[in-house]
């Protein structure tokens, strides 16, 4: 079946997901999270590609990594001998955000920064919104259920969700160990390449 067949009236048709994918969707929905781009999880696959969130093409097709950036990703993976049909893939957020990621999934808060001169001084900072923390929890359970050997963290948000590290350009091509024993290989998001 195609992923397009999985979607009906903006929702996922029952029976169109395998057991692993269904568990992810149900876990997300248990938190009140909206899923329109379910993961593609192949039991036994050794590699998991993890992106940030879907875009317009992904939202329309119901399948991750189908837009321009996804096409470039699969072209690069193919050059490395990796076929889309042999791996699993998912996104941290399983729908298309309507605002830029940092606006949609962060909130501005004032944190106390008292000084001797001004004990009431505060500093305004962005912190992850509760929804993003819930998406991270869903992703970690997804990884635990799939047991991949390698996770390709596609972009900053995927790197942060999996490792709490920031600065994708600093980590590009590194090998990090995930708490489940998988190796994480961070790469710059193909969209950044397309926009440069």
Gyration radius, rounded: 18 Å
Q: What is the global morphology? A: globular
Helix content: 25-40%
Biggest pleated sheet: 5 strands, mixed
Strand order of the largest sheet: 4-3-7-9-8
| SSE sequence, one letter per element | EEHEHHEHEEHEHHEEH
Strand content: 15-25%
List low-pLDDT spans: 1-10
Number of H/I helices:
8
In angstroms, what separates the terminal alpha carbons? 36 Å
Extended strand count: 9
Tell me about this structure.
- By secondary structure, the chain is of the alpha/beta class.
- The chain contains 8 helices and 9 strands.
- The strands form 3 sheets. Strands 4-3-7-9-8 form a 5-stranded mixed sheet. The chain has a two-stranded antiparallel ribbon with strand order 1-2.
- The termini are far apart.
Spell out the key features of this protein.
196 residues; alpha/beta; two-stranded antiparallel sheet
Quick overview:
The protein has 196 residues and is of the alpha/beta class. Helix content is 35%, strand content 22%. It is built from 8 helices and 9 strands.
Helix-strand layout with pairing:
Blueprint lengths: L6 E2 L2 E2 L6 H12 L16 E7 L2 H6 L6 H12 L8 E6 L7 H4 L1 E7 L9 E7 L1 H17 L3 E5 L1 H8 L4 H4 L4 E2 L5 E5 L2 H6 L1
Parallel strand pairs: 3-4, 3-7, 7-9
Antiparallel strand pairs: 1-2, 5-6, 8-9
Helix pairs in contact: 1-5
